[in-house]
Design brief:
Layout: E1 2-5, E2 7-10, E3 13-21, H1 36-80, H2 83-96, H3 100-116, H4 121-142, E4 155-159, H5 164-169, E5 175-180, H6 188-196, E6 200-202, E7 216-220, E8 225-228, H7 232-253, E9 269-274, H8 280-285, E10 290-295, H9 297-302, H10 309-323, E11 327-331, H11 359-364, H12 366-379, E12 384-389, H13 395-415, E13 423-428, H14 431-435, H15 437-440, E14 446-449, H16 451-459, H17 477-492, E15 496-499, H18 510-516, E16 520-523, H19 525-537
Parallel strand pairs: 3-4, 4-5, 5-6, 9-10, 9-16, 10-11, 11-12, 12-13, 13-14, 14-15, 15-16
Antiparallel strand pairs: 1-8, 2-6, 3-7, 7-8
The chain binds phosphoenolpyruvate and magnesium ion.
Length: 545
């Protein structure tokens, strides 16, 4: 038995084979081949297989994202069959007697460079696509799957690290657990794991290698351990723990349909955070009273080009209709910082976390904000929709955003397009927003505290940098003080305040948050029932808020 220790970021126990996911076009080296015709044939077979695969992906995507969303796979198919591209790859194999992997990688990079230098932003956006296509062909050549996993059985997914876009491409039904060598507790991979209730271990370091691929293992997500070929006593211990967890879960099921209030009668809303449509069933299964944070940026991360108004509208409408009368808080796209998207062609920034992200980017790209708000207001007539702006620091930003929203509604009204009303709120995730909350609260309908960023910006601790994890004290008095200020300002102005950052799922701080005046907590669906049981066990002694 081999024990690999990391940091547990989502509890739970599972047993299964390890699947080591390698990143695209890594480790491709140049080799000289003796048999050029055989190498050309190898390339041809891999290219054909990639084209077939892309056709299958198109068919799979159609019912999920519609023809426009699935079209990207057709574009990739065309690229893989483009004559210039094929001739360029063949020329490298023939003239340099190079191996096909190298020829595809080199050609992909050259073509990407050509696209990247073009004036037309649409063509520039194709740079990422040609790299994707090349990666897919290389994966066929090397036998390493790309953009997903090829396995008949569910696996323990191991990787160096996973980017947000890689994570959302994975077939979640096939993942028993995530284990990564790097990563940080607040990364979107960790958040996704918690959303799905999948055990996850990060920061295992260099001991997590490709050599583990295919070996039987067990993960204890609470302890943060990967046991490779666990012995009998560890297996028995883990099975007992898993049984205990299952019993607890059954108990929690009993809570479904019950009101969430403390022993002294304070009603607390327990909502769920959602990143993706596919998570809606978990919201319902866990009986969350609403969605406190729908991270709309994942719609953009999921796509290969700007999602248009109707694509967005269909997604928002599905969410609103599914939740019926329950509240859904859609956050406008929070892109920038750790969530970069190639087709946005954003300029490199020295300090992206302090740069053009969230609502700042929306204000800088009004055409994108307009499309998103039109889609959101149209969806608002199908349910109980609220709209929330991220990364706010000053009142003038809120005033501009509100004026913009009013213009969008006027436009919809004038053209006779049906739309609904939505509460407008802001995230409190910069110290400035908390400190200026008395000025901000009268301008909006609600506040939602993003403790992940509020902690990062208050303590000057990069949430993506695992080397400073030790300094990331989410219970720091400075953070709690800021939440208290925002809660007081919210209640003085007669609006509600929630917490949707990861701190909302930390049961050891729930009582403190409620005493500070927090009205709503929004957590990963998998935590909803546990949090509800906890809220119902608290006695605040009638503490006034
Ligand atoms: C936060 O910052 O706490 C938050 C909820 O938003 P995100 O994690 O998506 O930045
Ligand atoms: Mg945030």
């Amino acid at each position: 038995m081999e024990t690999i220790i990391g940091k547990g970021v989502c509890g739970g126990i599972c047993f299964g084979p390890v699947y080591y996911l390698e990143h695209r076009i890594v480790g491709v080296t140049r080799q000289t081949v003796d048999d050029v015709p055989a190498e050309l044939a190898r390339f041809q077979r891999a290219k054909d297989a990639a084209v077939v695969q892309l056709g299958e992906l198109y068919q799979e995507a159609l019912p999920k994202v519609g023809a426009e969303g699935a079209a990207i796979f057709e574009v990739h198919q065309m690229m893989a069959e483009d004559l210039d591209y094929l001739e360029a790859v063949q020329a490298v194999i023939e003239t340099q007697r190079a191996n096909a992997e190298y020829a595809v990688t080199a050609t992909g990079k050259n073509f990407a460079q050509l696209f990247a230098n073009m004036d037309d932003p649409y063509m520039r956006g194709r740079a990422a696509d040609v790299l994707d296509v090349s990666g897919r062909i290389v994966s066929e050549l090397t036998g390493q799957p790309q953009g997903g996993i090829k396995s008949e059985v569910p696996v323990i997914l191991a990787a160096g690290d996973l980017s947000p876009s890689e994570t959302i491409q994975l077939d979640k039904a096939k993942i028993l657990a995530f284990v990564t060598a790097e990563g940080s507790a607040n990364s979107h991979t960790a958040i996704l794991a918690r959303t799905l209730g999948i055990p996850a271990v990060i920061q295992t370091g260099a001991s997590l290698t490709k050599a583990l691929h295919g070996r039987q293992a067990a993960v204890d997500g609470t302890a943060g351990v990967l046991f490779v070929e666990p012995d009998e006593s560890v297996t028995a211990e883990l099975r007992a723990k898993a049984d205990e967890a299952r019993r607890k879960k059954e108990l929690l099921e009993e809570l479904k349909g019950q009101t969430d209030q403390t022993l002294d009668g304070r009603v607390v809303e327990v909502f769920a955070n959602v990143n993706h449509l596919s998570e809606l069933p978990y919201v319902l299964q866990n009986d969350a009273s609403g969605i406190g944070l729908f991270r709309s940026e994942f719609i953009y991360l999921d796509a290969h080009d700007y999602p248009d108004e109707n694509e967005q509208f269909n997604i928002y409408k599905t969410v609103a209709q599914t939740l019926a009368s329950r509240k859904v808080v859609f956050r406008t796209m929070d892109i920038g910082a750790d969530k970069m998207i190639p087709y946005f062609n954003l300029e490199r920034e020295e300090n992206p976390a302090l740069g053009l992200r969230g609502a700042r980017l929306s204000l800088a790209r009004p055409e994108l904000l307009r499309t998103q708000l039109r889609a959101l207001f149209r969806a608002a007539s199908y349910g109980n929709v609220s709209i929330m702006f991220p990364m706010i620091a000053a009142a003038w930003e809120v005033l501009e955003l509100k004026a913009f929203a009013e213009r969008v509604q006027a436009e919809l009204r004038d053209e006779g397009t049906s739309f609904g009303q939505a509460e407008l709120g802001i995230m409190i995730e910069t110290p400035a927003a908390a400190l200026a909350s008395a000025e901000l609260a009268p301008l909006v309908d609600f506040f939602s505290v993003g403790t992940n960023d509020l902690t990062q910006y208050t303590l000057a601790v990069d949430r993506q940098n695992d080397r400073v994890d030790r300094f990331c004290d989410t219970h720091h008095p400075a953070v709690l003080k800021l939440i208290e200020m925002a809660a007081k300002a919210a209640h003085d102005a007669g609006i509600w305040i929630g917490v949707c950052g990861e701190l909302a799922a930390d049961l050891s701080i729930t009582e403190t948050l409620l005493r500070l005046g927090v009205d709503e907590l929004s957590v990963s669906p998998a935590v909803v029932l546990e949090l509800r049981a906890h809220v119902r066990s608290l006695d605040l002694g009638g503490a006034a808020v």
